[in-house]
């Protein structure tokens, strides 16, 4: 497919059609790596269970290829769901917060945590890290199901991108602190000589 230099890259166009849950069921480390793999011809369009048949049809239309059924080796398409934390069982370990790609969980260390249902994509990535099994998946509320697929994926992408930027900034600040600490230590050692 011809792509002009001004238009979004093919990877961007494919990525825009993916659900942005970052669940990894397609066997890639998130939606964009899967989009890259489709664009470069190394992955099929039928590997995203959250996107289901509608998502496959969108990809087929974009790429001008025939649609096909979801490859269920990668998982089944499920009804929309959200995570729910049984708060009285939560020990406040924060592992679910670290696992959530869209910052849909609120809480602090040693305090109970809660899911912001309207931001939850139902990716289930927080479920297995919970050491006390107090996260369960429930049917998504109307606030989630009333939005179109495009609205939901755009919102999830905004939150995921914001989280990635924040993480990058935190890593850079950590590296800078470590550098300053090392320099201070070297100065101290030099002063002692
Ligand atoms: S939503 Fe689809 S494309 Fe994105 S990581 Fe999950 S399976 Fe892969
Ligand atoms: S709360 Fe859990 S299921 Fe919901 S988006 Fe975050 S990690 Fe995924
Ligand atoms: S992983 Fe489980 S126990 Fe830990 S903070 Fe999250 S909900 Fe609570």
Which ligands occur here?
Answer: iron/sulfur cluster
Alpha carbon gyration radius: 21 Å
Compute the number of helices. 6
CATH architecture annotation name of the largest domain: 2-Layer Sandwich
Number of domains: 2
> And the CATH topology of the largest domain?
Alpha-Beta Plaits
Arithmetic mean pLDDT: 94
Measured as a percent range, the helix fraction is 40-55%
For the record, give the distance between the C-alpha atoms at the N and C termini, rounded to a whole number.
Answer: 67 Å
Q: Note poorly predicted spans.
A: none
Q: What coarse outline follows from CA principal-axis ratios?
A: globular
Name the helix and strand elements from N-terminus to C-terminus, one letter apiece.
Answer: HHHEHEEEHH
* CATH class membership of the largest domain: Alpha Beta
Count the E strands.
Answer: 4
Question: Could you explain how this protein is built, in words?
Answer:
It is a single chain. With 193 residues, the chain is mainly alpha-helical. The chain has 2 domains: 10-74, 3-methyladenine DNA Glycosylase II, Chain A, domain 3 (Orthogonal Bundle), CATH 1.10.15; 79-193, 2-Layer Sandwich (Alpha-Beta Plaits), CATH 3.30.70.20. 42% of the residues lie in helices and 7% in strands. Strands 1-4 form a two-stranded antiparallel ribbon. A two-stranded antiparallel ribbon has the order 2-3. The longest helix is centred in the last third of the chain and has 44 residues, at 149-192. It starts with 9 loop residues before the first helix and ends with a helix. The model has no long low-confidence stretch (mean pLDDT 94).
